[in-house]
Amino acid sequence: MREKNDLNLAVLIDADNIPYSNIKGMLDEIAKLGTPTIKRIYGDWTKATVSGWKGALLEHAITPIQQYSYTTGKNATDSAMIIDAMDILHNSKVDGFCLVSSDSDFTRLATRLRESGMLVIGIGEKKTPNPFIVACDKFIYIEIISNTNADIKTNSEKSKTKPKHQVERIGKNFLQLIKISIEDLADDDGWAFLAEVGNLIIKKKPDFDPRNYGFGKLTPLIKSLGTDIEVDERDSSKSNIKHIYVRVKKK
Question: What are phi and psi of 166, to 5 degrees?
């Protein structure tokens, strides 16, 4: 992932394929990645199926774009969103796009935007087809955002509410991905800077997020793999900040 400080992002939302219930959580997540200078949502606002979005639009200053469904059974918002994205690409000063949809029809759009040097972040449900996920620089699952917000409420209310989604298990394939990524970046002694390892994993697996595995950050996830990964916390120029280095343990 490239530097995300002060990135100007165009946020384009497919109302037909995204639930409106967690729009605040989605926008808060996007705010961590950059500044949403353009916020547009596409749908046929004459339909009852998207009526739930209307209250959120004014609250979060999202511009609704009307797109009538000319053919039954065809998602007409796709073409309008794609055309707008290309107009923004050529006419606006943005550093990246956030495509909020679970529709694989946006795979080619994500690829085209990246070919033009744009950062592309995808947000969608777990059902999102893999081609769209891997076409993005980073992909975030809505269920993860929902679960994070639920955890915040749970902690504040001291409740034992169960998470809204199934936490993934760290399997052999993912563990191997971590090990290979460490070795790709390791120095002569086998140590690699954890932040760089995390960035490399995202390049290889855009939907990687420690929250998928029940961890809020990458460091505790790696520390949980103590039988396979060695962790070294080193002092930095700031006393309250540690630099985390990792290496694969030799069997």
Answer: -80, 125
Please report which helix (H) or strand (E) contains residue 95, including its range.
none
Report yes or no: 11 and 39 within 8 Å, Cβ to Cβ.
Answer: yes
CB 39 within 8 A of CB 61: yes
Nearest Cα residue to 202 out of 131, 138, 142, 144: 138
**Where would I find the H helices in the chain?**
23-33, 54-59, 77-91, 107-115, 130-135, 142-157, 172-185, 194-204, 218-223
Over residues 220-237, the pLDDT tens digits come to 999 999 999 999 998 877
Residue 228 CA to residue 224 CA, distance in Å, equals: 9
Distance of CA 162 to the CA centre of its chain: 23
In this prediction the pTM is 0.84
Sign of CA dihedral 2, 194, 25, 163: positive
Q: How confident is the model at residue 5, as a pLDDT?
A: 57
Separation of alpha carbons 69 and 47, rounded Å? 9
- How many angstroms separate the CA atoms of 12 and 98, rounded? 6
Compute the distance between CA of residue 139 and CA of residue 181 in angstroms, rounded to an integer: 19
pLDDT digits (tens, 9 = 90+) for 147-160: 655 444 444 444 34
Q: 82-104, pLDDT tens digit by residue?
A: 999 999 999 888 999 999 999 89
